[in-house]
Amino acid sequence: MEAWIRARVTLALTLFALLFFVSRSSPPRQFVISNAERRIDLSSHIINVHLTLKVENTGTRPASEVVLALTPTEVDHLAMVDALAIKGKRKKTTSVHLEVKPTELPDAPPIDAKYFTIYLADPLNSGESTTLEVLYVFMHFLEPFPAEIAQSESQLVFYHDTALILSPYHIKQQTTFIKTPSTKVESFIRVEPTNRVGTEIKYGPYEDCPPYSISPIHVHFENNSPFAVVEELVQEIEISHWGNIQVTEHYTLVHAGARHKGVFSRVDYQSRQFSNGASSFRYLLARLPARVHSVYYRDEIGNISSSHLRTNSLKSELEIEPRYPLFGGWKATFVIGYGLPLQDFLFESSDDKRYLNFTFGCPLIGMVVDKLTIKVVLPEGSTDPSPVVPFPVEHRLEL
Amino acid sequence: MSNSSTSDLLKPFKLKTKQQELLISILCLVYILAFITRLFSVLRYESMIHEFDPYFNYRTTLYLTQHGFYDFWNWFDYESWYPLGRIVGGTLYPGLMVTAALIYRLLHFLRFAVHIREVCVLTAPFFASNTTLVAYFFGKEIWDSGAGLVAAILIAVCPGYISRSVAGSYDNEGVAIFALLFTFYLFVKAVNKGSLAWGLASAFGYFYMVSAWGGYIFIINLIPLYVLVLLITGRYSMRLYVAYNCMYILGMLLAMQIRFVGFQHVQSGEHMAAMGVFFLMQVFYFLDWVKHMLSDTKLFQEFLSITVTCAVAAGGIALGVGVASGYISPWTGRFYSLLDPTYAKDHIPIIASVSEHQPTAWSSFMFDFHILLFLFPAGLYFCFKRLSDATIFIVMYGLTSMYFAGVMVRLILVATPAVCLISAIAVSATVKNLTVLLRSKNKVAQIGSTKGTSSAKASSKASLDQSQPFQKNGAMALLFGAFYLLSRYATHCTWVTSEAYSSPSIVLAARGAHGNRVIFDDYREAYFWLRQNTPPDAKVMSWWDYGYQITAMGNRTVIVDNNTWNNTHIATVGRAMSSYEDEAYEIIRSLDVDYVLVVFGGVTGYSSDDINKFLWMVRIGGGVFPVIKEPDYLVNGEYRVDKGAAPKMLNCLMYKLSYYRFGEMMTEYGKPPGYDRARGVEIGNKDIKLEHLEEAFTTSNWIVRIYKVKPPNNRW
User: Fold this and answer.
1) Which residues does A contribute to its contact with B (CB < 8 Å)?
2) I need a surface site. Which of A82, B562, B570, B684 has the fewest CB within 10 A?
């Protein structure tokens, strides 16, 4: 096996979910945020924060760099930050994708914070205002409390944040909505005016908050969504001369929620599905490319027979079930493999080079991948491979 | 003119090549058939290792390919027989693993990047294919090439052999039957030819057999017995002398290289027959020489009696001294249990507890041999009609192995090649006689119709026909009968293979309510759970049947496994399972056990579970620890789990672990909760409380239940 692989040109890209940045900037303090609305979605273990900012240039010069601030813990758990500029009014809005880069502010702020700069497409003239939409995605951010639960208990987690949006700018008016997965909320800190309706907690509106004002809150609530985390995923994409791409994905899956404590009783699990093992999960869904063939799902000790494949001309869905339901802290390793027609993914350019166009990431839905390695095995005789990835990654060539 | 003469010259040659072409193509087809008929399990399930022992073989083969031969040879396994461990290199027959590893290396050398598991799965079918070739040559050596062909076909599909050589049944027997037949073939060839080269080859065949399977004992006792019979029947010859001496001396020296066998060839009682015959052989040779030198027959007679007496006395004294001084070990219990079917039941419960060690029922003979069972005596008849050194051998092989097949179910396997060969002789001889009869008539008829030159001959034949008017029709009918029987045999074999012998037993399949196939993959579910969710050094206690599987698939340390070398250790586990929970807890603590695993079929109706095996645990435990008494678990000699069961039964650890919280479970519509489908009764103790253990995992169909051993309570 080794010799056989060594005989080929192997290109391995190792990508980590860490982002490396080098930056420099100066903070233009000429903005004021006239209205800020934040919607925090806590319904799964991946937290989406939608931030809508109405930014007004109160300075004298046109400016194009808007700075966002995050606490260091938030930055540690940040998976993605994305910004859009909204143009037009009401139903005729168009959005423009904006560049976001981490920056450091030289004039030390009163609190510890990390910064990202949004580069506006057109500089904002003095007195003008614009609407920005920012999306943050956090992972590993909910802290299970209690950290160990029994089978019949449901999973409670803590969410820590501040009621006031951390910002280097003056915010005239702001509101925060926190959406919890169910109405079962153990406790939350009130910062008046605070209002809770159904699954939503509303903080605000708060008027005239100076820069860097914070007000720590926490929400302790029930979250039984699957805390499915792939600790490590190794994806091997093998390109064959014979018109086939063979993809093999090695998963190390873990339930990263509150740890399972004590007994696992099958009779309870079978007879009382909803009240028992509520935070455990059994099914996973993988969305595979269309025209997938020869799909297999196995582990070190053999085939796992509990899987279903549904295919149509647009997409293929593979529903898989690990050998046993996963409770907090339980692990499972498995391999998914499939073949794809080469012509769907390989393109030839005029300069006699070939491009493999493959979606980056994990086909399982609702997954957090901690460590991802993609290996592309090129056919024999390939020369000078180079990867093109829209974000910085580590990569190396193995021969 | 010249052209026609050359074609005339070529004619016999051509015919011969045509025959050979036919022969080779038939053999190729048989070779392929033998392979593909064993692939049912791969097609039905997947390419996987079956049953119990093969998992150990697979694990060791994996180790061999990963760490190399010397590490394998010196391997001390900490993961089994905790806390004793096992010297794996010195307690196994490495032939199978080395063979599979060599095939693996070869395939990789040829750039076939196969996984070692695939090699292991297909080793047995591959060797079964090779066995058909050996059967052909053996049949040819004993009788003729026709019998050889029939033997090859019969053995290719014979269920008795298929039972141990389907794809995935990666066990010693898979290669050992090939080695056994090959050794016998080479030895018979050596006896027929009297050549040192064949004797040497048979010694190497024997070496391979010794390296592969403990059944080599059969060879080292059958061959001396055969030689003895030849000596007694006055068939002693120089050929025999050369063949036996060469095979015995070299074979013995080679066999000593296997660590597990070591010096047994000179030290153990089972091997003494071979040595005795070896010395007897020398005496015979000496006498032959003396006879040659002495012309006086009377003098020779006296000399003969003196020498034979002296030789036998010396041999007897040597054996007596050897046994008395302990140099020669007495026969082992396993050997005794082979000679006496009732021995194991009384003395070694651990052997008797294995279902494949039970005496064979008639039905399983019929199941595994089908028509061969009737052809076997017919073949013996033909063999006796044409006695030669070779036929005597096959007769002896057939009769002895049939006896052993009657003693133990699993030894049907050893008898299968002999039965196939002898039956092949019967089939071949019968069919040949019949076709000769038919052909000769056809020829006569043809000649009579086309040419009038040999009319006198024809008329004489015709008169012969007249004397037996229905001979031709009778021959036709008999031939059709034979083919009908053979075709029935083929159908039966295929059916048995597909229905009975192609189940991996680790994955169970059943028909669902809508006729769809339901798969119970509970074993692997549990083993994989152990592998992923328990500490890597966790010790798992289970009955010994599951030991190999837990170490191979669960990758966890076990207390006992299928290598039943330490009876006391197994008895300790048996005692723990049959004690009350608090007593068992002490044993469990003393063995440092973290998890206890039981197999339970009450939900699915899976009958080979631990409750059904439980009486053997009691017996084996009681054999070492007299506190465990079998009658305590029985009610009037009856084994029950329902309300009428013995109180000790209802409260022993095995019962508690199997039925814990089963009383709340509805298994079948219209039956009370806690209805055990494997035994068809409602359980007797539904309110089971566990004090020192807690349920850690139960598989989706409840087949495997794993309990965690709680740490001792704080004393203050």
Assistant:
1) 1, 3-4, 262-267, 271, 299-306, 323-324, 329-333
2) A82
What tens digit of pLDDT does each residue of B305-358 get? 888 888 889 988 988 888 888 888 877 777 888 888 778 777 777 777 787 888
| B51 within some domain | no
A266: nearest CB among B519, B531, B702: B702
Distance of CA B299 to the CA centre of its chain: 51
Let me know if residue B401 belongs to a domain. no
Quick one: closest CA in B to A269, which residue?
A: B700
Domain closes at, from B329, B347, B370:
B329
Calculate the average pLDDT of chain B.
87
Domain count along chain B: 2
CB contact under 8 A, B108 and A302: no
Task: Count Cβ–Cβ pairs < 8 Å, chain A vs chain B.
Answer: 66
Cβ neighbours around B579 below 10 Å, total: 23
> What contacts B244, CB < 8 A, 6 or more positions away?
B191, B199, B223, B224, B227, B277, B278, B281
Question: At which of B329, B345, B360 does a domain end?
Answer: B329
Residue written as token pair 């599979």: B100
Q: Enumerate the H helices of B595-646 as residue ranges.
A: 610-624
Residue A10 token pair: 């192997």
Question: Is B677 in the A-facing interface, judged by CB distances under 8 Å?
Answer: no
Any CB–CB contact under 8 A between B300 and chain A? Answer: no
The pLDDT, as a whole number, for residue A109 is 63
Q: Which candidate from B519, B524, B664 shows the least CB-CB separation from A323?
A: B524
Task: Decide if B48 touches A, using CB distance below 8 A.
Answer: yes
Range of the domain at B700: 519-709
CATH number at residue B547: 3.40.50.12610
Residue B208 maps to a domain: yes
Inter-chain touch B108–A265, beta carbons under 8 Å: no
The kind and range of the H/E element at A143 are strand A143-144
pTM, two decimals, is: 0.88
DSSP strands (E only) in B535-634: 539-541, 557-558, 595-599
- The crossing angle, in degrees rounded to 10, of helices B145-157 and B2-36 is 20
Q: Quick one: pLDDT band at residue B528, thresholds 50, 70, 90?
A: very high
What residue in A sits closest to B45 (Cα-Cα)? A303
- The closest of B80, B75, B120 to B97, measured between CA atoms, is B120
Question: CB distance B661–A267 less than 8 Å?
Answer: yes
Evaluate whether residue B105 is within a structural domain.
no
